[in-house]
Amino acid sequence: MGIVDVDLGSVITAGGNLIDDLFTSDEERMALGIQEKQIDAGLMMGQMEINKVEANHKSIFVAGWRPFIGWVGGFALAYKFLFYPLLGWAWQMAIAFDWIPATVTMPPTINATELYPIIMGMIGLGTMRTIEGVKGVKSTSLSPPVPKKESGFKWPWSHKK
User: Which of the residues 9, 52, 96, 120 has an alpha carbon 20 to 30 A from that of 59?
Assistant: First the structure.
């Protein structure tokens, strides 16, 4: 024994563990990717269960938020393009007949610019679901279809030849 007593095997093991911790192999990355996908799938399944419970709820405040968005969008469009122009005409007539004073201003118009993308998205989704129904490919599942394994088909992550 010398002045410094060092176990060479433990030094090599510690160095190997350090290098292994610094560098991730393809297999480890793939295993982590699979774990992440499983966690994401679990979260999506949980959200789907919550959506089912909400949709079956009797309260309008729980089950009615999706229709509420549609009704708000429909009312905003009706007010801006139907009711407000007719209100302007009726307002001018009421001023002309002295039913209301000329100093009273007309109610404001709404700025529906922020609402249009939501309405267009809802219309687009509704159209997409209608087309799926007409073509007979409408599904009740929220998850995308999984391709069936056919002859010659190879999964991208498969290492088998």
Answer: 120
